[in-house]
Amino acid sequence: MPTLTSKAKDFATELTSHNVIEKDLGAEEEISDEHVDNNLAVRKMLQERGVRPEQLPPEEDVKKVQRKLNVDAKKVPDNVRKSGNKRRK
Q1: Could you tell me where the DSSP H helices lie in the chain?
Q2: Which residues, including other chains, have CB under 8 Å from residue 12's CB and lie 6 or more apart?
Q3: Whole-number Å distance between alpha carbons of 9 and 3
Q4: 49-70, pLDDT tens digit by residue?
Q5: Domain map of the chain by residue range?
Q6: What's the predicted TM-score (pTM) here?
């Protein structure tokens, strides 16, 4: 999930948390409706700013990143790798 989408969802969730307290929401249906409303409002704001979440490019897959790190680690000379693992006194 792109960072922007993740942050937008976080923001909508934080709005819900805030409003549960501020509006003294207690019933599950009230909280659910509040959450849906906040997600719709955040999506509307993104669209008004020209951002379409479904058109954002996906973030790099975590497994791909790990493979890339493993390949890069193999390129580091052994003497450098070993010296980096020693504890400093």
Answers
A1: 3-22, 28-48, 62-75, 78-85
A2: 35, 38, 39, 41, 42
A3: 10
A4: 999 888 877 776 767 777 888 8
A5: 3-85
A6: 0.61
Are the CB atoms for 56 and 6 separated by under 8 Å? no
CA distance 1 to 5: 7
Q: Which two tokens stand for residue 62?
A: 């975590």
| DSSP H or E segment with residue 25 | none
Contact yes or no for 53/8 (Cβ under 8 A): yes
Classify 52 as helix, strand or coil: coil
Contact 60, 71 (CB under 8 A): no
Dist. CA 13–CA 9, nearest whole Å: 6
- Read off the tokens for 72: 């890069």
